[in-house]
Amino acid sequence: MADALRSRIRTGELRPGQRMPTQARLAQEFGVERGAVRDALRILYAERLLTNVSKGSPATVAPDPGPVPTGPVAPPLPTIGALAPRVAAAFAAPHVAVDALCLTSVALTLAIGEPLRQIHAGRLNPARIDVRVLLPSRDIDLAFPAPVELADGSPAGASATGRLQRRWLTHRNAQGQVLRHNLLALRGTHGIDVRVSFRALPFTPPVQLYLLNGAEALFAYYTLKRSEAEIDHEQVEMYDAEGVRSTLFAFERGAGLRDSTFVEQSHLWFDALWETISSELVLTD
Q1: Which helix (H) or strand (E) holds 68?
Q2: Are 60 and 129 within one domain?
Q3: Beta-sheet strand order (sheet of 77-78)
Q4: Cα angle for residues 13, 122, 193 (degrees, 5° grid)
Q5: pLDDT above 70 covers what percent of the chain?
Q6: Do residues 117 and 231 both lie within one domain?
Q7: What is the average pLDDT across 229-236?
Q8: For residue 207, is it within any domain?
């Protein structure tokens, strides 16, 4: 939704100073809940494309929408809004290299959507795309999501833990399969040399890390929150991380010693995990 509305603003379909449609109308148009509408509007507000974003009245297109903040001078933003423009910029290179370490690949799968649209529209034309993704192994006990202990201090039980693990595994596999399918499809449609690889980690990553073309490192903490969800027709209280809403920090090679060192060390760390303690990962149900 944020991508579609951003495009309308950039092309002038929504003019500077014009009021946006109401949240109810946007929810109906895109077939989503109001919460998703508010998330999309907040992304565009963070990019300085909208003003007056509140629950009380429709947002307004900024008088002079500037470029989307990028690079190390950009303020930290939620992953859901900050990752996509950086990935799209990386896809302007002839050889695209994306490395990701995460709990699931949902944020990367969403972010890849924008450069895929630009490739299909003829605005981007990379010759080669290499994507490597490190995800937790299905054989470990995840640190999170994890069930909340009962009031008397006894464990919530293996049943809740098992349900959470199965839900995470289904989500991990589905997102990875979508990511791989969408990228590999470029071989047939555009003749692009695409390679997508997954490996499994023997631990739950406390952070998510994205490395773009050897030049950028994007980093976010997985901050745990208490939440509740219905799983197999039962309510389960859990500690979990909202990865797509985690604040993403950007570092760029050549933007000073600190940034360059962070990018370099992040690549060394990722390569070490990939080549040593990680194992083959097969995305099966």
Answers
A1: none
A2: no
A3: 77-78, 247-252, 216-221, 207-212, 95-101, 128-136, 193-201, 279-280
A4: 145
A5: 91
A6: yes
A7: 81
A8: yes
